[in-house]
Amino acid sequence: MNSPWWSQPCAALDREAADAAWLRQSKLTKPPGSLGVLEDVAAQLAAWQGVERPRIERVWISVFAADHGVAAEGVSAFPQAVTGEMVRNFVGGGAAISVLARTLGARLDVVHLGTVNDPGAIPGVLRAVIAPSTANFCDAAAMTDEQLRAAMQAGAGRVHQALDEGADLFIGGEMGIANTTSAAALACALLGEMPERIAGAGTGLDDAGIARKVAVIERGLRRHADADTALEQLRRLGGFEIAALTGACIAAAQARMPVLVDGFITTAAALTAVRLNPGVRDWLLFAHRSHERGHARLLEALEARPLLDLGLRLGEGSGAAAAVPLLRLACALHAGMATFEQAGVSIADSQ
After folding, report:
1. How many domains does the structure of the chain reveal?
2. 219 lies in some domain
3. Which of 66, 87, 193, 316 has a 20 to 30 A CA-CA distance from 203?
4. How many CB atoms lie within 10 A of CB 29?
């Protein structure tokens, strides 16, 4: 029996290109290490792109929208209709990620995987509807096997489209009322953590709302305690958009496409992807530390050092988009600074 596509090997990093980038860094007119993480980013991008002087020019942002059955438990401060309404707002240019993509000159790709409030066919929105929503994980598995595969394949398909159109960086975003509850439940299962350590305010819950969310997650975890693989935990507790993000991370790593990971929900998907295929980790760069309670624990599990810490918790891929200028600056400094020899500047005395 053939193994599933998501378990196929990931691409290898180009270590020679990374070594060449570090050698160039050592010759630039600055003290060694003085540009800190920007130097690390330049070398990492070199390893991904296989060139000494990488560039980030064509950024692709896929936002996956889907609804969650667990919203029936009252775990969100917003009504479920918002998911479908935001699909229209994304392509209408009014959402935060729309503004960020426009400012960056990035491609914004909106993928509708299924909402209770279906906005219908909208120009600029890819309809890949699986169902109006997942099932309520307190009562049943969130997805069937077929739905899980369809969602993961939807994410992989957007990566392949991005590659076909010449993108050199992939950002995944999400929209789905109650998806912080789903992501928190999935994170608890993956990490073996208690819900009160992971579940946060999401769309703006007060303390009572967070306590209700914790209780709902506890019910879901008890019901699905026998889910003993990352794939089954994703199927039982995840969402269509979380599964799509998981598939996108894996497909990107297999196809040499670097991924700039956003916040709490996308990091839960990234951890799932790494559990399914450990080689994925080499192709992930983490944009920011979200204000959402459980994000720091997910980052710790992935041994990730995020680029930014701005108190963000919007989702949509917005935190990742906000970090793109840092990547571009890292590339510009790496390629554009003079070496000591070119500038006629004396090098430091060896100690």
Report:
1. 1
2. yes
3. 193
4. 14
Q: Decide if 38 is inside a domain.
A: no
- For 32-84, the pLDDT digits (tens) are 999 999 999 999 999 999 999 999 999 999 999 999 999 999 999 899 999 99
Classify residue 17: in a domain, yes or no: no
Structure tokens at 313: 């918790």
pLDDT tens digits, one per residue of 248-300: 999 999 999 999 999 999 999 999 999 999 999 999 999 999 999 999 999 99
196 belongs to the catalytic site:
no
Altogether, the residues listed in the chain come to a count of 351
3-class state of residue 288 by DSSP: strand
**Whole-angstrom Cα distance, residue 19 to residue 292?**
36
Q: Do the beta carbons of residue 64 and residue 113 sit within 8 Å?
A: yes
Contact 173, 315 (CB under 8 A): yes
User: Are 6 and 276 a contacting pair, CB within 8 Å?
Assistant: yes
Domain of 232 in residue numbering reads as 59-326
Query: Is 135 among the domain residues?
Result: yes
Are 278 and 253 in contact, with CB atoms under 8 Å apart?
Answer: no
> Minimal CA–CA distance to 253: which of 85, 4, 12, 3?
12
pTM for the structure as a whole: 0.97
- CATH at 158: 3.40.50.10210
**What single-letter amino acid sits at 112?**
H
Q: Which of 52, 73, 174, 316 is catalytic?
A: 316
pLDDT at residue number 282:
98
Contact present, 151 and 143 (Cβ < 8 Å): yes
**DSSP secondary structure of 154-217:** HHHHHHHHHHHTT-SEEEEEEE-TTHHHHHHHHHHHHHT--HHHH---TTT--HHHHHHHHHHH
